[in-house]
Each structure stands twice: as structure tokens, then as C-alpha cells.
Write a structure and sequence with these properties.
- With 487 residues, this protein is an alpha/beta fold.
- 38% of the residues lie in helices and 24% in strands.
- It folds into 2 domains: 323 residues, Ribokinase (UDP-N-acetylmuramoyl-L-alanine:D-glutamate ligase, 3-Layer(aba) Sandwich), CATH 3.40.1190; 151 residues, 3-Layer(aba) Sandwich (Rossmann fold), CATH 3.40.50.620.
- It contains 17 helices and 19 strands.
- It has a 9-stranded mixed β-sheet, sandwiched between helices.
- 45% of the residues are buried.
């Protein structure tokens, strides 16, 4: 699929509405230093530094739909416990997934996946899952919520993570409602007995799931074809089966046709967590946007290829897909949005890197700026520089400023050696940027003191170290302007 075709498809995706129904999981990441052995047992002891929490499973599917430009409508089940409340709070605080129907199952625990990470390596993953499927009353509420939203959406995703929400009666009812409304259903399956998904437009098992369902091997092309044939024979109402095979790409079996293969691009895989979520999201969005099935698969393949280069349950944005198609791979220096910077910071943390933040107007660059940036980079492995927007500079410096626009200032800062990312922010202080990025260290020029910084309270709240860089006297944009004016 050409970059131009991808760009056109992504533009159409922005007009689509996707119903995501499935298991909701609270994903926790615990980061720390594992540099000693416990005195109590011959195991590694990790000193916890930070915790992050995000939406996993079907929640991550919805995040990917949103990131790719679609409107995500999310329906799922949570328990009446602290974790369910936390997951609900995460959704409520989301700036993007606004259409949410949560069914609270009394007496049921909310699924939680906790990963312990040190120096970029996952040491341990702990799952806490509810026992069994949801009860009949919860099934009724989930079916009612989903059925009431089908008609207003362009496509439906069933995201089954085996946590019990997608019970057979639920999946069949949702598929029946979608078919009645003329909406395609794409299924990301789990477990055995795919007959509960019969009637869906497409089912997307990975190679292992395909083997478990059919009892057949699925390594070679011939084995995959035989397994897909067997699965097709057991499902009378499914039009398409799409087997995802990791580095081997995807194999499509449409009813009555020969299998077709969609190769993947070679990648330096960083983390496969959530790749299936990205894949099913892009596939469904492509179908909703009017792409043919082969086009939607190519789009899905490209999106999944980008996300495996990221850390954790990540998402993919349209420009990243376009850049990948153009061969502009990697995440080097440059200007980014705060959301994009946050994702890259998360990856750096996952790699065990220390992240620094500094901020300023940087209107006319001078040696004082360079000294501060050099001092900031000396405190960290990766440095993010937050640049005040034009409106912010006017509020801080007066209507005659800035001399250079925010885009020009950000580009200049991003091009400097010590800087990894430059972001533009609208506020007068770096408080909200700090909350979004959660750096390890915050560096400010020597004309400030830690206690006088407006950002100091939030730094203490988040455990961010504050470092004051050496001050370079008589070097400022204001003095430069005065000299040019002959003052």
C-alpha cells in the first residue's frame, strides 16, 4: 500500500465510529532497580521507583482506534472493587475515549496485569483474573449496552482476552445485532470453541490460537492452510479467517477461496505487547473507512509492524504509519506533540534510561541557553525541552515578543546536540508538561532557586529531582534586543 493510499485511508478513518466490546484489563507497570539479591531468598530484589497504569486488552483496542483517528465506543465489564474504580477513573480522565458503557459485576474482581520492569527488561508478570465467566445478569446488561450502540457505529470489534466477558451468549447476541444492522464484526479470539464467534465477518487468531482450536500444527504455509481449512469447515457463517504469524506476516482464508499471504516488513522488535490490539483496530478501521479486505489487512500489517518497535501496550499514530511507509523509521531528535513525547519517554523508561526535562521561551538563542541545555543533558540520558508557545511568551514577556515563532524556536532547539525532543506547550509554567511526561529530573537555569520555582510542588508530588544549572550572567534575549535597539 503506497504512502499516498495510506494517507487517504487514514483521512477516511477519521470519519468512522468503532464499537469495541470485550474484556477490560487494568495494566500496571512497576519500574525499579534490580541490582541486588534478597536476603530472604535467592531471588532478585527490585527497588521500586515508579508505577504507571493504563488501559489494557479491549481498552487498549479502543486507545488504538482513537490514536489512528477513529471514534472509539467502548463497552466492557469491571468488578465492584478498588481496581474497577481505578480503571473507571482512568477512563474518566481520558481526553479521547468519551463514549463508554461500563457494566459493574457485583462480587467479581477486575482483571489486572502487573509487569515488573528493570533496565528495560521485564522481570515478572503477575495476572489477577476473575474466576469464570460473567453471570447471567451481567451478560444481559452487557448485551443490552452493546446492542443499543451497534446501529450508531460503522464496525464492531469483539476483543476476547479470556477473562470471561465475551461469554458465548454475549458474542452471539452482539454478532446477531451487528448482522441485523448491516455492520461487520471483526473478532480477536481467545480460548477454544470458536463457534461462539460464528456469523462474524472475520476472525483473527494468531498461529498458536489457530493450533489450539484445530489441533493442527501451524508453522509452515502448508500447515497454516490446512488449519485454516479445518477451521473454516467448523464455522458455517464466518466469511474470513485471518491468521497472524508474527514475522511471517498474515494468511487470509476467505470462504471458498485459496489462502492469500501478506508478508510483514523486517523489524527490530522491541515489545510485542498489544500488537494484536493495534492489528485488529487498524483492520476494523480500514473496513469501516471503505477499504477492501486486502487493503485493510495491509494497513493492519503496517500498523502492527510499527507498534512492536515500542514499549508496553503502546499505540500507533497516523504520522508514524506514513513515516514508516516512507522509510523514515526510528524515533530520533525532532519536534513532537506532548502525547508523542510521552510515548517516547515511556519507551526510554522501559529501557532503563534517565529522562530529563527543562523548559523556556528560547526566543533568540544565546550561550546561556546552550549552557543550560548542556547542564540538563549532563543530568540524564535523554532530554526533553518544553518550549513556550507564542501566546505564552506574550503573556510572560509582553506583546512585542516573541521575535521568533513557536515552530521556529522548537525546530532550532530540537536541532541542538543535547536535545532529544522539543515540545511546544501552552501554559505559563511547565506543571502540566511535567505531569504528562513524568521525568526523572527537572533542570532550570541558575536565575531560579528550587523553592521559588512554580513547578516545585508538582515535582515533589511526582518525586522528580530538581537541579539548578549554573547561571551565565549578562546573556539573555532581552539584553540582545536592547543591544540591537542601541540602548
Amino acid at each position: 500500500m503506497s504512502p499516498a493510499a495510506l494517507e487517504a485511508l487514514l483521512e477516511r478513518c477519521a470519519k468512522t465510529r468503532v464499537l469495541c466490546i470485550g474484556d477490560l484489563v487494568l495494566d500496571r507497570f512497576v519500574y525499579g532497580d534490580a541490582d541486588r539479591v534478597s536476603r530472604e531468598a535467592p531471588v532478585v530484589a527490585m527497588r521500586e521507583r515508579r508505577r504507571d497504569v493504563m488501559l489494557g486488552a479491549c481498552g487498549n483496542v479502543a486507545r488504538n482506534v482513537d490514536a489512528l483517528g477513529g471514534e472509539a465506543v467502548l463497552v466492557g465489564v469491571i468488578g465492584d472493587d478498588a481496581e474497577g474504580h481505578e480503571l473507571s477513573t482512568v477512563l474518566a480522565q481520558s481526553q479521547h475515549i468519551k463514549d463508554v458503557e461500563l457494566v459493574v459485576a457485583i462480587g467479581r474482581s477486575t482483571p489486572v496485569k502487573t509487569r515488573y520492569v528493570s533496565a528495560g527488561h521485564q522481570l515478572l508478570c503477575v495476572d489477577r483474573d476473575p474466576d469464570g465467566a460473567i453471570d447471567a445478569d451481567t451478560e444481559d446488561k452487557l448485551i443490552e449496552a452493546a446492542a443499543g450502540l451497534v446501529a450508531s457505529c460503522d464496525v464492531v470489534i469483539l476483543s476476547d482476552y479470556g477473562r470471561g466477558s465475551i461469554a458465548p451468549r454475549v458474542s452471539r447476541a452482539v454478532i446477531e445485532a451487528a448482522n441485523a444492522a448491516g455492520k461487520k464484526v471483526a473478532v480477536d479470539p481467545r480460548g477454544r470453541d470458536f463457534t461462539r464467534y460464528d456469523g462474524a465477518y472475520l476472525i483473527k487468531p494468531n498461529a498458536l490460537e489457530l493450533s489450539l482450536e484445530t489441533g493442527l500444527a501451524s508453522e509452515s504455509d502448508a500447515e497454516v492452510e490446512a488449519a485454516l481449512d479445518a477451521l473454516e469447515a467448523s464455522l458455517g457463517g464466518v466469511a474470513n479467517l485471518l491468521a497472524t504469524r508474527g514475522a511471517k506476516g498474515m494468511a487470509l482464508k476467505s470462504r471458498g477461496e485459496q489462502a492469500r499471504y501478506f508478508p510483514s516488513q523486517p523489524r527490530d522488535v522491541f515489545d510485542v505487547s498489544g500488537a494484536g490490539d493495534t492489528s485488529i483496530s487498524a483492520l476494523a478501521l480500514g473496513l469501516a473507512a471503505g477499504a477492501s479486505l486486502p487493503e485493510a489487512i495491509a494497513f493492519s500489517n503496517r500498523a502492527a509492524g510499527v507498534v512492536v518497535t515500542k514499549a508496553g501496550t503502546a499505540i500507533v499514530r497516523p504520522q508514524e504509519i506514513i513515516n514508516d511507509a516512507l522509510g523514515r523509521t526510528g524515533a530520533g531528535s525532532g519536534v513532537a506533540t506532548i502525547e508523542e513525547a510521552s510515548e517516547r519517554v515511556a519507551r526510554w523508561r522501559h529501557e532503563g534510561l534517565r529522562v530529563g526535562l527543562t523548559n523556556g521561551c528560547f526566543d533568540i538563542l544565546h550561550v546561556g541557553h546552550l549552557a543550560t541545555l548542556a547542564a540538563a543533558r549532563a543530568q540524564c540520558d535523554k532530554l526533553v525541552v518544553a518550549v513556550n508557545s507564542d501566546a505564552s511568551v506574550r503573556r510572560l514577556k509582553g506583546e512585542a515578543r516573541p521575535i521568533n515563532t513557536q515552530d521556529e524556536r522548537a525546530e532550532l532547539i530540537a536541532a541542538l546536540g543535547p536535545v532529544d525532543i522539543a515540545v511546544v506547550f501552552e501554559e505559563d509554567t511547565a506543571i502540566e508538561v511535567t505531569r504528562a511526561l513524568r521525568p526523572d529530573v527537572y533542570v532550570k537555569g541558575g536565575d531560579y532557586q528550587p523553592d521559588t520555582l512554580p513547578e516545585a510542588p508538582v515535582m515533589r508530588e511526582l518525586g522528580v529531582e530538581i537541579v539548578i544549572a549554573p547561571f551565565v550572567a549578562d546573556r539573555s534575549t532581552t539584553s540582545t534586543i536592547s543591544k540591537l535597539a542601541g540602548e
